[in-house]
Amino acid sequence: LQVPNAPSQPLAGIESRRFTNKHSKKALKASLTLGILLGMFFVAWLPFFVTNVAQAVCGCVPAGFFDVLTWLGYCNSTMNPIIYPLFMRDFKRAMGKFLPCCRRSAEPRPSAISLSMRNSHSGPRAATSLKNVL
């Protein structure tokens, strides 16, 4: 039987707390992002759907007001590509790889062949050359 050293136990506890804190922060940030997205969705589309039901029941909604509420919902859809990069680092990195306006100058643009090889999960092949691929 080996008795663990006393100093290693507090380190393990500190490491597990650090691991828990790291994941708690990620979960909190994900919850915040989701809350903002859902909040904006409800603020933008709920008036449209309530007005739509009211229009079906009584027909008392002016066409101009209905159009304004429709465009409010469309504005919400245009805000999503702005909100995601602001709050999600992984989304920002992924967009930076494929959009020329968001790419850093030091990052090379991935070629179509390297993307297909990366996505095929087959890894590099010794006998594969560009002639064989084309």
From TrEMBL:
<feature type="region of interest" description="Disordered">
    <location>
        <begin position="114"/>
        <end position="134"/>
    </location>
</feature>
<dbReference type="GO" id="GO:0005886">
    <property type="term" value="C:plasma membrane"/>
</dbReference>
<dbReference type="GO" id="GO:0004930">
    <property type="term" value="F:G protein-coupled receptor activity"/>
</dbReference>
<dbReference type="Pfam" id="PF00001">
    <property type="entry name" value="7tm_1"/>
</dbReference>
<feature type="domain" description="G-protein coupled receptors family 1 profile">
    <location>
        <begin position="1"/>
        <end position="84"/>
    </location>
</feature>
<keyword id="KW-1133">Transmembrane helix</keyword>
<keyword id="KW-0812">Transmembrane</keyword>
<dbReference type="InterPro" id="IPR017452">
    <property type="entry name" value="GPCR_Rhodpsn_7TM"/>
</dbReference>
<keyword id="KW-0297">G-protein coupled receptor</keyword>
<keyword id="KW-0807">Transducer</keyword>
<keyword id="KW-1003">Cell membrane</keyword>
<protein>
    <submittedName>
        <fullName>5HT6R protein</fullName>
    </submittedName>
</protein>
<dbReference type="GO" id="GO:0071880">
    <property type="term" value="P:adenylate cyclase-activating adrenergic receptor signaling pathway"/>
</dbReference>
<keyword id="KW-0472">Membrane</keyword>
<dbReference type="InterPro" id="IPR000276">
    <property type="entry name" value="GPCR_Rhodpsn"/>
</dbReference>
<dbReference type="GO" id="GO:0043410">
    <property type="term" value="P:positive regulation of MAPK cascade"/>
</dbReference>
<keyword id="KW-0675">Receptor</keyword>
<feature type="transmembrane region" description="Helical">
    <location>
        <begin position="27"/>
        <end position="48"/>
    </location>
</feature>
<feature type="transmembrane region" description="Helical">
    <location>
        <begin position="68"/>
        <end position="87"/>
    </location>
</feature>
